[in-house]
Design goal:
85 residues, elongated
Amino acid sequence: MEGSTIEIAQSLITEFWTEIFSYAEDCRLTSSIIVSKARDYNRKWNKLAETHPDMEVDGLKELIKKQLSETPYFKDIYPTALKYL
């Protein structure tokens, strides 16, 4: 995955939300899945951060946590996910 930090973040966060929404549509979304997927995408981010000096390690995890905490649905129904991110 090549591109600027912003492009990489947008791509990964879009993939994350697409996957999360697919679980939600199938009524299979849990806090464990949210945490697991956030960690998976954060690992991808951190791997890229090794070669992109402008990318902060664990930056994607912080972005995901911020977005989840600002979305009432996730904040209210999946507080455990926020706790473990």
